Amino acid sequence: MTRLTLSDAQWAKIAPYCAGKETDVGRTAVNNRLFIEAVLWIVRTGSPWRDLPPEFGNWNSVYKRYRRWVKSDRFSKLFNALNDSDLEYAMIDGTIVKVHRHGQGAKGGLGHQAIGKSRGGMTTKIMAMVDALGNLVDFTLLKGQQHDMAGVKPLIKDKEFGTLLADRAFDTDWLLLDLEERGSKAVIPPKSSRLKQRDFDKEMYKWRHLIENFFCKLKDFKKIAMRAEKTDESFAANIYLAATIIHLR
Asked: Where is each Transposase IS4-like domain found (predicted)?
């Protein structure tokens, strides 16, 4: 199967933030670039770890290293180190992913891993915020049957943005009041049930396709599109890695 390689330009940006690099105290890690490409191959193809091509090394050794990175939040640190988002304009929305049978069976039950039962079966919802270029800023995981609004507060907490774009599902009084108090502009269509309809910038609202585009790019990574991870921490690590690669394209 074709190897998914990082370009030299991508690796030059990623390398300084990898654990065990030559400038770190202690043992130098063995070929960080090959390790990142191995994890990327798994996340992109959705294959089981046992199917990792031999050119990446022993699958079990790579998997154990991956789990060490997951537990130490190394993938999120890598993402945050390279995140240079401009939040003059921010967009939020959610997308559903159906949980593969390989993603079920974690200790403590599915409810502890943001997996819920909806009309589509066992699902997870990814609530995300992207910037004006459609690059990921932050995300949170919800059970599939939860309303999108349940993920809004974690996404907007401690963030400053000039304008927030969202669809009419986010037309709630508390969010509009919060944005007004922040001095941020709300580009959110009013629900038809509102007695007094609000005006909103219809031309600017067209930009909201950028977050839908991001979800499409994210779901090109098969292990994310079918939620083939039992734990939230591993699933989130895959999203951080995929979003990093998308940002560096």
From this structure: 91-243
Q: Give per-residue burial for 35-53: e unless 16+ CB within 10 Å, then b.
A: bbbbbbbbbbbbbeeeebe
Beta-ladder partners of 142: 125
Candidates 32, 41, 58, 30; CA nearest to 5 is 41
Residue with tokens 């891993």: 113
Select from 95, 31, 69 the least CA-distant residue to 227: 95
Describe the crossing of helices 209-218 and 232-248 by its angle, rounded to 10 degrees.
110
Beta carbons within 8 Å of 183's beta carbon, 6+ residues apart: none
In angstroms, rounded to a whole number, what is the distance separating the alpha carbons of residues 48 and 28? 28
Whole-model pTM above 0.90?
A: yes
pLDDT confidence of residue 109: 65
Tokens standing for residue 214: 């991001």
E strand residue ranges, the chain = 89-98, 116-118, 121-130, 136-143, 163-165, 185-187
What gap in Å lies between CA 208 and CA 223, rounded to an integer? 25
- For residue 23, give the amino acid letter: T
Joined tokens for residue 179: 């944005």
Q: Locate 107 and state its tokens.
A: 């200790």
Cα–Cα distances (Å) from 112 to 72, 224, 226, 231, in that order, read 20, 18, 18, 9
Phi, psi of 116 (to 5 degrees): -135, 170
Q: Please tell me the predicted confidence (pLDDT) of residue 108.
A: 65
Contact 103, 229 (CB under 8 A): yes
Q: Which two tokens stand for residue 6?
A: 């990082």
First to last CA, the chain: 22
